[in-house]
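Note to self: the last two entries modelled the partners one at a time, which told us nothing about the interface. This time every component goes in together.
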Amino acid sequence: MFAALTPEEWEAIHLSLRVASVAMLASTPLAILVAWLLARGRFPGRALLDGVVHLPLVMPPVVTGYLLLLTFGRRGPVGHFLESTFGIVLAFRWTGAALAAAIMGFPLLVRAIRLSIEAIDPGLESAASTLGANRIVVFLSISLPLMLPGILAGAVLSFARALGEFGATITFVGNIPGITQTIPTAIYTYTQIPGGELAALRLTAIAIVIAFAALVLSELITRRFGRRMLGS
Amino acid sequence: MTIAVDVVRKQGPFTLSVAFESAGRVTALFGRSGAGKTTLVNLIAGLSRPDSGRIAVDGEPLVDTARGLDVPAHRRRIGYVFQEGRLFPHMSVRANLLYGRRLLRAGERWGSLEATVELLGIGHLLARRPSRLSGGEKQRVALGRALLASPRLLLLDEPLAALDEARKADLLPYIERLRDEMGLPIVYVSHAIEEVARIADTMVVLGDGRAVATGPVEDILARSDLRPYTGQAEASSVLTAVVAAAGDHGVTLLDHPAGRLSVPGRHGFAPGQTVRLRIRARDVAIAVGEPGLLSIRNRLAATVTTLHAVEEPMVDVALQAAGSTLVASVTRDAAEALGLRPGLAVTALVKTASFDRMSLGAAEAPAPAADGA
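The predicted structure of the combined assembly is written out below.
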């Protein structure tokens, strides 16, 4: 069945993996920062930040995609700035797909990390400070390692969400084979053309395999870390 | 080592307003739950800051709100052992022990991993995770971790509170060794009078958010007027004595200038060693004149100093026994029948069976001369 994959299908799989990986890796550091602010920060506008972060979760994806197009499109304020200053174009490029996927997965990532931050006993951080660790050392040696299970769980969720991203992607970057066509948009295309059922099925099977592999991988990592933490 | 504290901190409806100064090797912060003990040690460690006031160790200010000075916790070099240990769950025991040490410059370190591990008997635990340690082992590792950060002062916040009686008795000798062998000044927080009597030389009694009394443990424990704050059911006294014989017939014999005492159990002391013994006031009887034939073997020659009516019908009789203060709790009727009055020579009697396992401990070695300089 896999031998029968057409170059276009391979292209879609490759692109999906690339988009999902980049979305996950690029958004994780920012998600850690935002989760930290939401969990520990005491500043005006915290509730607003919380709301904005969660918006992509509750808004129709197409709305998110359209807002992205308005903002990051070549004539949008940010898009225009990026192109004229750095020569970066996001609209109708795979990088734009990664941005859309990152934003759609962001609430899930922040949520998982925030829960793990809230589960950290602040007493451990105090203990580290009495042992001579400044705030940066405390964060790197105590807080971050204790957040790791949450970061991993969030990263897997964000990766899976990115793989499945459809509405925002198709609105923002379109569905151009070889350039912005990911597994979901490819499946959609194949279901729209006569005789495309087999190709759609093949990609569906592959999507399931990738999703399942991600789940197993995260379970293995979590279990490994869990055992190290609890020592059992 | 001196520690000088004069701070105010409001926490909701509770206001801590404490001023004291201590030059003791081991200073006990003593008080009931909610007296503000932990709040106070957190201020000393730098984990919270006072609304106003200052704290200085050896004359060096750690916080002084009037001058806008506040040394952050990580630069105070104050070791802190928490009630619940607070070991880092994602690190091995060895990594926990070395955590603070790795952050020091080579010139700031004293002691060594080997010596600390030896002192605390935790060599077999190094590769384990904290979750696989018992409560007593956790506290020993927490002690080692604090020591290896080479602090200039050690705060112990009820380090025994989470342990059962047997584990407490196991851990206490380690803390005594720490005090005697490391020469490190210690602030020991506790609400258990028997721990304070064994470990500390100076005592600060906290009550209602204030320091109600500060002084040598022997003097404070003998004061009947502090009972509402110490929460003691009765007064007690602490005697310092020298071991005469250890373990024969299951008794340890102690020499005190006022007489010989026998305490049940072997306790593992060597003859000639100085020990401290806590005696509850209700275990002390008073005889005027020669007691005659009596099963009570512990007899100390003493003089009545004061009588203090506590709660009907009991009277606390303070006695002077060759320089030590001893308190006896007797009924008012008995005190009248014996004609007890200040200056009267009496014999204090203590039943051997009334000593419990916690009441006897090693006294700290005499302070080396260099320490006083």
